[in-house]
Specification:
The protein has 311 residues and is mainly beta. The chain contains one helix and 30 strands. The protein has one helix at 234-237, and strands at 2-3, 18-23, 29-33, 36-40, 47-50, 61-66, 72-76, 79-84, 89-93, 95-98, 101-104, 108-113, 119-123, 126-131, 136-140, 152-157, 162-167, 172-176, 182-186, 198-203, 209-213, 218-221, 228-231, 245-250, 256-260, 263-267, 273-277, 288-293, 299-303, 306-310. Strand 20 and strand 21 (209-213) form a beta hairpin. It is globular, with a radius of gyration of 19 Å.
Length: 311
Amino acid sequence: MSLYYNPNSTFSVSNNTIKVFYQDDCGNIWIGTQDGLNKCIFNTNKFGAYLSDDGLISNIVTALLEDDSANLWITTYDGVSVFNKKNDEFESYYSVLDQGVEKKLLNIRDIAKDHRGNMWIGKKQELIFLIQKKQVFSFLSFPYKNEGSLDILSVFADRGNSIWLGTFGNGIYEVDINSHLLKCHMDVDNSNLSSNYIKDIIQLENGAFCFATLRTGIDIYNPLSGKIKNIRFEDITDNYVSDFINCVYQDSRGYLWVLSWFGGFVLDQNLEYKYFFSTKTGLVSDELTAIGEDANHDIWLGTMWAFSCFI
């Protein structure tokens, strides 16, 4: 099943370029797009759109996350909006105070929540730590050597006490959630990491980490042994763009979904290749950008040109 933006319908998704999926505690699917936030009522194909005219800080949504109070956090390139679903109201932050100094919240790429309920927001040059209950923001920066700035693309909270940062050109940073100090920095020079361009990070059921790279497929990192296994996909498709990975996701069955600029791949629980999916198998586009799973265990796949649902 594929769904598109329909300008003649008030119930269609607001834009075809899908940035992110998120399912809330009520089972509703939220979709961040290039032009607005959308809510899909569970088990229907009807959408309600929220735009800047409705209070959203910017229509270009980059990430979604629910806090411990069931408020939906929406990050954009122009700031952060917090949506109170009970009151149907937005509270937005263009800038915040860091030790009395006003700092703008621009170029935000990703957001994560640690096991204490605190929020970690990744933006160009800095990581922002928010003590949610006190609404206190702290800006953290770390050393870098490539690409001119610490451009954070992904933020991930693991099952322990670390925040992981994937960057554009500077590899991976592991930050301690208690001390806020840098625990580890991996790049192609000091480890077997295959690329310094890390678009997405997840932790697998077995405790290993999967790093999505923008040039060399995926890296599987075993934190116990320190070993890294690289898996590439160009040989499957005969197209080098298949190793430009936008996001990775492990579903409820334990299968690993790998989304690239030229179709997607599914690996089994042993990380063995199972199958390739693309427009040839029914996708609306090969340029895959987002993935989510609903309460029915259906997989939602976002692309640059609308989205498809695997039922």
